[in-house]
Amino acid sequence: MKPRMSLVVAAMAIVGARPARAELRELAAHVADAYRARGARVVSMSTRFLYDDETLVVTPPPPHGEKCATIAMVGARGLSFHVGEGEDESGHLYSVAGALALDSCDGTVAPVRVRSDAGRGAIEIVVAYAQKPLPPLRDVLPERMGGVTPALVDPGPVPALPSPEKRADAAESLARRDGATVSRRAMANAGADGTGIVRVRLERGCHRIQLFSPESFGGRRKLRLDLDAELHDASDDSLLARDRGEAADARLDVCAGESEDTFLSFGGALPLSPVIVARAAWPLPPAVPDVWGPDARRRFAGALRARHVTPPHRAVALYEGVVGATTFVTRLEPGACYVAVVAATRGMPRGLVLRARVGASEHADERGTADGAALVAFCAGDLDRATLTVEGRGTALAWGVAIFEMTSGAWGREP
Q1: Which of 68, 96, 292, 349 stands the most exposed, by the fewest C-beta atoms within 10 Å?
Q2: What pLDDT digit, counting tens, does each position of 282-310 carry?
Q3: Is residue 98 part of a domain?
Q4: Distance from C-alpha of 44 to C-alpha of 127, rounded to nearest angstrom
């Protein structure tokens, strides 16, 4: 019985292989017919078999005075192979869905080395000669090569935005739900180039300033309105906030450690149009340390607000340092959770990185904020100390670290 069973299995394998071989021959015949329809002289070479990690050499017949030659190879979809010499992959051509074609128009045809990448199976080879280039295999076998690239479709005009007033209403409603106090709107005038500048007084606190411009649809407008803005300190022209995104409206979030005058500049508005300036404000978190002055105070507040963190009490520990990498250890209450914030207190920051390691757990803020601050959160677990590292880059830079206890490790006790 066993020999008969083996014969039956072998016969089933042969029957299953014949349809696949027949399909490849039909594809190769289709390729040959497509080349002949373009006036090419076509030679169908004998079937070759490619095995795992094998290299075979295909030597096409010589041309008969034709200038251009195309060598098309078609295998099973799961067969992956490439042609090329040496180890330099930049000169290799790889199959797509088991098919590839080599083209040349220099009047010569050289042997081709075919190398298996994955799978094994038969390859049908069609060589065509013509006086001009033949169509690419993508057009001959679109079901294998991804089809013909469709023409780009005109999406039409960009849909119109709501009016500046409606966009400002939505922004102010969102700020109110976030607990902000919304100020009376102001207006600015855009110049002939769509730019403008307006003086803005910031009181102590955190602020959101948003600008809204009308847009024009004379003709078929293809580009969306893109309003950008910057906020500079009026005393030293230092940059406080910037919006260079691709949104139609500009939004600036900034905190002020004390009352100060600023200049708000914008660009990208509709030329010679009125621009709405909407403002919302939140008080500074009371836990922000005052020891390093108003400039550091606004940076601490900005880092906390950007992460939506409101410490319940003042910092349980303060540290300070200068430019470079500084590592120090701080004591913790087992079971408690903390937030550590670093902010520049002097000089011109070019980047601050803050890392906190508690046992085998490490927490890091590699990016920080644009104006020189960073924040990490961590929990003590069953440990009583954490190792903090500050990496500061800048000119004449000094920084301060404040550590806030967010939840206590003691049962029933607030931090």
Answers
A1: 96
A2: 999 999 999 999 999 999 999 999 999 99
A3: yes
A4: 6
CA distances from 166 to 133, 184, 242 (A): 59, 15, 24
Dihedral sign (CA 219, 223, 224, 230): negative
Residue in this structure with the two tokens 């100020």, named with its chain if needed: 183
Nearest-angstrom CA–CA distance, 27 and 35: 13
In this structure, the answer to whether residues 330 and 379 fall within a common structural domain is: yes
Query: Look-up: residue for tokens 């079901």?
Result: 143
CA distance 245 to 263: 19
Distance CA 104, CA 126 (A): 14
The residue from 109, 143, 177 where one domain ends is 143
Q: 289 in a domain, yes or no?
A: no
- Looking up residue 128, the CATH number of its domain turns out to be 2.60.120.380
Cα 366 to Cα 185, 237, 320, 363, 387: the distances in Å are 37, 27, 19, 10, 16
* Residue 254 CB neighbours (<10 A): 21
C-alpha separations of 41 from 45, 171, 189 in Å: 13, 70, 72
Are 326 and 401 in the same domain? yes
Low-confidence stretches of the chain (pLDDT beneath 70): 1-21, 53, 85-91, 145-156, 158, 217-223, 409-415
Q: Is the pTM of this model over 0.85?
A: no
Does residue 414 lie in a domain region? no
pLDDT digits over 224-259, tens only? Answer: 789 999 999 999 888 999 998 888 999 999 999 999
Question: In angstroms, rounded to a whole number, what is the distance separating the alpha carbons of residues 145 and 100?
Answer: 9
